[in-house]
Give the backbone structure.
Amino acid sequence: MATTPVVDIHTHIYPTTYLTLLRSRTKVPYLLDLPDKMAPPRLIILPSDDDPALPAHQRGRPIDSSYSSINQKLDFMKTHGITTSVISLANPWLDFLSPEEGPQWAAKVNNELEDICSTSQNSLYAFATLPLSASSSRITGEIHRLQSLAHMRGIILGTTGLSQGLDDPALEPVWSALESAKLLIFLHPHYGLPSSVYGPRASEYGHVLPLSLGFPMETTIAFTRMWLSGVFDRHPKLKVLIAHAGGTVPFLSGRINSCVQHERHFPENEGGGRGPKRGLKEVLRENVWLDAVVYSPTGVRAAVEVVGKDRVLFGTDHPFFPPLDEGKEEWMSVETNIQAVKDAFGEDKQGATKVLGGNAIELLGLDVAGDG
Ligand code: URA
Ligand code: ZN
């Protein structure tokens, strides 16, 4: 029986190359093997994880085989009816490497991703990673090289850019290279907000505050800085997919726009000429795609309202947010997101089908089995 393709554009992996790199390190981020060989190693991913007062098995996060096994990724896809996945390296990517180390590791990781995809009978594609600590010519060199890797459909990018954020003028050659290579930028958070905003009781709530609020605010601020600094004026063909349904961009776009219109610092409001030329509404409709990793129909509807129903794409964030009951095959996080898309579209079954797969196939030129 023919099936309707379901495409997951937000799904991560720590390939073997990357785990080797993390194991070789003793500073954050690094991988800590435990004396109990049966226990998964711990990923010390944030400075707050690196707490010597805690026993090793309580530091950071457990990184079991679901973070690196392709067979487990394929099994997960089968369980949830996902036809095709566009895999990306999980945070914190290569942000922490020295300028000399970055390019060789980027090439190794990207080559491994390409190898994985090329043996997957078109069920896997990838977003590559960039050596952002290196010189801009080395970064653009990797962008050009990616065009020779058949399964690359874009790059995953954190919010710090070359270290100064995404409104940094030094990023201009990188934006130009991505624009001319027609590679989608998958904008994804990692750093969250300063831990002081979570207050002295933060540890009582585990990762709830940083993941539910810190991540989306981080992405919102990064994208807004890109827009404010005129990146989309200078690069009108740049394509950005914002993680987690745009953070809070759909909800706050009116307020962001209004603040710009009332800001005397932008002289064009008083007849001068600074600030973004292309309005936020236009950029959201022409340069931006949003994933549907938002766990509610309200969030999906907001995303659809600001970018349009052809520009919202299903994702899972696998292998993050697994069921707490380890014996369970179906993931609540995935089922919630599928249901949210269906509920948001109601009777418009075709709209839901496009968000679940059709939009990604068209945007990324995926060769996918099924009848659409
Ligand atoms: N999702 C991610 O992609 N990264 C995290 O660190 C946590 C959730
Ligand atoms: Zn993610």
Q: What stands out?
A: The radius of gyration is 20 Å.
